[in-house]
Amino acid sequence: MAMANKAKLEALLTLINTSARDAITLYEQYGEVPAIDQMEPHPLDDAIDQTALKSAIRILEGACAQICATLAPPSHTAINLVQVYDHACVRVVARERVSDILLKYPRGLHVNELSKEINIEPKKLARIMRLLATRGCYNEVDTDVFANNRLSLILLEENPVKHMILLHVEPSAKGATVFYETLKDPRIAYSYEQTAAPVMYAINKDGTEGTIFDLMARNDDQRKCYNTSMRGLNHIMGSLAVLTHFPFEKYSTVVDVGGGIGAFSLSLAKMHKSIKITIHDLPEALVPARDIWVRECPEALAENRVEFDDLNFFEQVPVKDKDIYYLRNIIHNWDDRESTIILSNIRKALGPNSRVLIHDYVLRQLSRKQAVIEASEFGVVLAPEPLLANFGVGNIRSYQQDMTMLFAHNAKERTLQDFLALATAARLKLEKVWDLAESCVLEYSAA
């Protein structure tokens, strides 16, 4: 048994070595390999298709975490799960725009001077910055002198990912603090209503009611932050890789259901200029969308390649007989009952050759038997042994996002079996899973 265990560790070490070398090779195709204290982005950071890199990093992160959890004392690993205050520190530097300030000081700025600019006590500020620099975010170039690095540039005000980060460190964090209470409160413990989501439970103590969408509708700043954060998801999830993996060139019409400002459609319009796009969303979401398209893709408007059409997808059927109906990060906002209504309304719009694309995380089971079935039947990539069958920590964002959906919306990310059940309820047939290493695109036809 001891030899078998040692053999597993040796196999994990091989996976670490191989996947790290794969990542290094990919970076070298775009330039130099990055360093942790690098002060500028790497060209690969903004690549539309990062699927190969994400595939390598998924194995690397999973194998590293698995070997550490195996060899470290259990008490060591257990306390590391909970003694995590990075989010509180990130909230400070994000709210105070520290990265934007440090852009003016490429050689670094002493915390005493930074303290004067943001009015935060310097010794406390130094502790915040040191923790983040230990995580690889910011570079301590001299004692208490900090500069930006490649990671801290994500927190620049112009970066859409920063706005997603703000949603996590503020409303989602509030929901996390009362999560246990919501599980025990007899009024809502078994409820999947959005009004009973932990975020709203926390905020309701201040007299705010409704759903998180209602909250944003009443707050212009939060709504703008949310809309911008959806563009940040392109970078976090590598969502735009679908533009190079799915054969959009074979189709002439795409309906972006719940498309908002066009986080997906803007890139689609620029890459596939023969496609006619319809963006469906609520009227208040389409007002800023039109302004953004005028600014960022006026040629699509001039050539009538995009139209904006009001739609409440719970009550209305989308425009009919189009080629592709695309839903990115829509279904995960809703419970099964509401998701079935959305998909059933889309089903009514389908022509005989139409396809529905649901683009979300797909939660993988830890059962290797189930993973083998999903790989053979639907093309989901199988984790190499002895890595955990769901890639372990290599896929941790999908499981953390599942909790985010629970905290914010009382909703969830789904397993492939969950998606198959939804498809049956909405009279759709799953044709293929396009595995993009982090997210997946599930392709459906009319059943």
Q: Any overview of this molecule?
A:
By secondary structure, this protein is α/β, with parallel strands linked by helices. The protein has four domains: 2-81; 98-155, Orthogonal Bundle (Arc Repressor Mutant, subunit A), CATH 1.10.10; 160-227, no CATH class; 238-446, 3-Layer(aba) Sandwich (Rossmann fold). Helix content is 51%, strand content 12%. It contains 20 helices and twelve strands. It has helices at 2-30, 51-71, 74-82, 86-95, 98-102, 111-118, 122-134, 160-177, 179-184, 198-204, 212-217, 220-237, 242-245, 265-271, 283-296, 298-302, 336-349, 368-378, 396-409, 416-425; strands spanning 109-110, 139-142, 145-147, 253-257, 276-281, 306-310, 324-328, 355-360, 362-363, 414-415, 428-435, 440-446. It has a seven-stranded mixed beta sheet. It has a three-stranded antiparallel beta sheet with strand order 1-3-2. The protein has a two-stranded parallel sheet with strand order 9-10. A hairpin with a 4-residue loop joins β11 and β12. The longest helix has 29 residues, at 2-30. It is globular and about 65 Å long. The N and C termini lie far apart (50 Å). The model has no long low-confidence stretch (mean pLDDT 94). This is O-methyltransferase-domain-containing protein. InterPro entries: COMT-like, COMT_C, SAM-dependent_MTases_sf, WH-like_DNA-bd_sf, WH_DNA-bd_sf. Keywords: Methyltransferase, S-adenosyl-L-methionine, Transferase. Residues 211-426 form the O-methyltransferase C-terminal domain. GO terms for molecular function: O-methyltransferase activity.
